[in-house]
Design goal:
Mean pLDDT: 93
Low-confidence stretches: 1-17
Strand order of the largest sheet: 53-67-66-58-63-64-57-54-55
Strand content: 35-45%
Number of strands: 84
Shape: globular
Distance between the termini: 82 Å
Largest sheet: 9 strands, mixed
Structural class: mainly beta
Number of helices: 13
Length: 1290
Amino acid sequence: MKKTTLFLLLFCFKFAIAQETEKVSINWNSNVDYNIGENTIKVPQFDLEFYNIDIPLKKIQYRKLVAVTPNTNPSSLIVSNILYQNISESELYDLNKSLIPNKFQSSLEVVRARDEYKGILIVSPIVKEGNVYKKVVSFNYSFQNNQTNRFQNPNVVQSISNSVLATGNWYRFYVEKSGIYKISKSFLQSLGLNVNVDPRNIKIYGNGGRMLPLNNSLPYSDDLVENAIQFTGEEDGVFDNNDYILFYAEGVDTWNAESLTSVNLFADKSYYYVTSSGGAGKRIQSASEPSGTPTFNFSKFEDVMYYEKDLVNVGKVGRRWFGEQFNVTNEQTFDFTIPNLDTSVPVNVYINTASKSFGNSSFVCKVNNQDVGTINFPALVAFSGVEGYESAINRNVSLSSNALSVKLTYNNGGVPSSNGYLDFIRISSKRNLIGYGKQFSFFNNEQLTNVGIGQYSITTASNISQVWDVTDLSNVLKYDNTSGATFSFKVSLGTQKKYVALDLADTFVPLREGNSAVQNQNIKGTIFNNNQGNFQDIDYLIITPQFLLTQAERLADFHRNNSGLSVRVVTLDKIYQEFSSGKQDVAAIRNLIKYVYWNASAPDKRVKYVNLFGDASYDYKNRVFNNTNIVPIFHGFNPLASDVNNISNMSLYSSFMSDDFFGLMDSGEGQMTTSFDGIDVAVGRMLVSTIGQAKEMVDKVIEYHDEKSYGRWRNNYVIYSDDADNNTDAQLQFDLNSMADILVNQRPFVNVKKIHTDAYIQQVAAGGERYPEAKRDFLDALEQGALVFNYFGHGNEEFLARERLFEKLDAQNLSNRYRFPLFITITCEFTRFDDPNRFTGGEYMYWNKNGGAIALIATTRQIGVTTGTTMNYRFSQDLYAYGLNEYPSIAEALRLTKVATSSDNRRVVSFIGDPALKLAIPRPKVVLTKVNDVPVNQSLPVMQALSLVKISGEVWDENDAIISNYNGDLAVQIFDKDINRRTLGNDGVTDSNGLITMNFVTLGETVFRGNASVINGQFEFSFVVPQDIRVPVGNGKISFYSKRNTPNLDNQTGFSRAIQIGGVNVNAPSDTNPPTVRLYMNDEGFTSGGITNCSPYLLAILNDENGINTASGIGHDIVAILDGDETNPYILNEYYETENDDYTRGKVRFPFRNLSPGLHTILFKAWDVYNNLVTAEIQFNAVCSDDGLRIERVLNYPNPFVSYTEFWFNHNMPFEPLDVQVQILTVSGKLVKTINQQVTTDGFLCRDITWDGRDDFGDKIGKGVYVYKLKVRSTTTGKSAEKYEKLVIL
């Protein structure tokens, strides 16, 4: 956590003491049901803004964000005037009463987030005094701003440095276990090192096999460090065959207190680097022994032995991995031998286990066949989000020999599906310092706890030539044995040390990989260099594996050119080489970002965005099939959790994965175990695992900025709410609706479409309750386009809500290309992307190359209702930058939301996508100036039914001046008066006031949707108001969107609520002529009866002298009826829009989805504004992709021809790349010309391939009849089809 005491200053001075005081009231309410996923618990509740609940622990807190300064002293917090009310034990419901404190508890945390200071006040809202429970209803708090900012962070490198790998020849090898290693001349030769050098120049670098500290305050080098070595035989300057190196190497078997494991979670190899470049190398020096008489003599030492394997992750969450499973073999034995054991001292045995069972289960533990206890586990509760229980046993046992056997017997409680797991066994013992033919490490704790001089004495030490002090891995010191069988050396007391006794008969041999050579690199010294070699601050960092580098650079180039950002792409292998001694480690990535962040030229120049360009997994080591650990992610872990029935690392609620870790830059941060994270950098992740997928996702970013993506859809925002299954759920729709209303109030140019499922008629089928009309409206809205889609409600990996409001298959089948939205799903686990063997709906939404979302604000674990509500409100405010003129990137908006959210449950919300991407919000502003030539500052004429209306307007700049050189296109949508609606209460949920329903307001029906030209900043268009508008006069809304492509591609938005709509024009001329219509499937090259794929587009081209009715009068909708099913018509009003500057002509383009193969008929109906009806019919043969590629109507046009012809064919795979080959042959079969070309068509007709009548050598071929073979192959399915036809050359 980013405490103010950790704020970096290079000097100190005093501040005047200031004190902040405030009164707080806690407003308890009557709600007790709290939903999490499919599970409900009962707990007392108060204002959700301040409510924090730990679901697994069933513990609540009051949390309030408070204003602080850089000088706020958290320890100065004083709480006074606490007012209580008694609360009965029964009113505590499911709260864990054992965690309710016996006195009032409070704390203040202060963090810094990109030089903004945030404070969070945390109090216990319920206490137990004696046998009486009391709830806090109010209190006063104060704190002082008297802390001087003089903390110096030793781990912030504020200077540019070069890596040792920048020059010279380097080779690497690895070790797995810690100890003293012997390196021979032949081993170095096998690496590729030139051994014909002065051996005194040979050097070994490496930082050991330990995991890097997560906590930023703990020291760790940002480059490879040279290790002291002992080189036997180097004195003559020649590397002889019998010469060798001894050095201490730390393996991947080092205990880690942040993760409570002896196994490196990220790597199985500890790399070391060797070079002979440069001057003399570092050598092991003799330790300096204190003079004087020792006050302590150590002939024994404390030894710790671990047995641990990381084979399985029980809940597929977090950093806790387990080894042996007990579902098949329920009894297993683990044997240990402890050399030179002091049997007079009991041995401590610590066994950590876990169980996953829906019954009561247990482990019976025996040591040397003596029962030492039973570990009992409670039964799991279905759908609770708890995947297992973790418990340990800690016992002291007396041994009579150095042999120790641990037997574990698992009892599954009679539930066959149960499984038990062993995490680790730790054996702590006292051993005698006696040589036994092996190297061994030792330390006596009394050296740490006492002062003065101590002496270690090792007996039977004839073969122990030296003892090494390996406390400092890079500066090993030695004590030489000069006394033979009894080896003694003196040490200073009061410090933690680690020693290794060297027995030359037991040295280890390092290992090597196939390619040991290491390329020169220098991230630290070059990352700030621009193309000219000059210093340049960095805005955007992209972290990627080497195999995705090309696509990452494509994205970087786009932002350099399009966004004006300074971007650097860094590959993981180079990061690990330089920052973590070659090992994979999440902290190495963070340390690179920290290096870049703190070395900026000024605070406002610090890196803003970090893109983790690769998918992630809960498995860092590729133990699971199809693993997707492309760029590792941080997984949360609580090392302070209870040893008994701990669920914190196996709960889908309390566990989390988070990329926020990579944006925590200040001291004290990194472990993410405190309440608040001061995130400094906006971090996003692009979920890509292959080169092809990476290209597709970069393509989407580029397409999002393409001119084809500019359109009126950018004014739209869609909300989608779950229905009310209970009282808590009922509040979700109220909150989402309120958030949308606030958005429109703050940004009135936004057109919000509200899809509240409870406002639709619920249908009950065999699979359960469903809302097919709501789902269809949602899918239609996705196809039509909106800048944001915001769903709030329940969900899981497969679908949204138990009514399956949106499913994985829906996400895969979307075809909203060039209308990619931001998809917000503050719901449980819809984008739990770290399980490689279970792809989620959110992932498919992102991966859809022809549609889906450009980015996701998504939950990766379970989220509480209160946190979800708070974040949804706040994110809307930050995304649309209420009250500000500049919009942040989407990822930056999420960062701002997180640092303003008190609940640590916020960590389960992730940003998926390009973190530098800004929401494509059009700029202001397009304004209405006149209606029927009446200026808007006067009383405007009413738009009456059947009246001809002329609208005039202008495009203005930020200073409200017309942009006179603005020439472009305008899209306009005119809405009838707002509609008051009410939800239905489909599930019958009630409260004290009866059935819970919600009143809400939506935009009125579309009166007109059309297009016009903007010339010199001005526009004008006309239309006839439909007869079906609602008659009462009231204010409607006119929504504008304009774009231009010169001098730059640009777009603007605007609106007006000044227009009045209603009444009837009684003097309107009569019109009894129906519209005319032409129907096609997908493009105008289609003829009725032709083939399509199974998701074709209906294209209807309409013409009417007074325009087409879109006002949704009863029975007057534009509809399509498929295969005669008049009970389920497709309503097409929202898909109609006029041609530019002509309200009499327009078209409908509507996507059908997932039709069955075979012949289909569509009956199309439309009405003009006078309600004259036109009908038409079209037939098509749907051929699905599974049926293979189909081509027909192959021809060339013109035919015959002289010097130009086009090859035409119909196919059933629009939007997919097709490889086309045309071979022209003589009638005798001689090949004269081959044309190869890849095509992608929007429709089913391809006419992209042309020929000039010349052969493969460029020569004109003779007149006559020729045969050609046209072959088409799908690049996505690999299926192909071919046909032969004839052509004639004149």
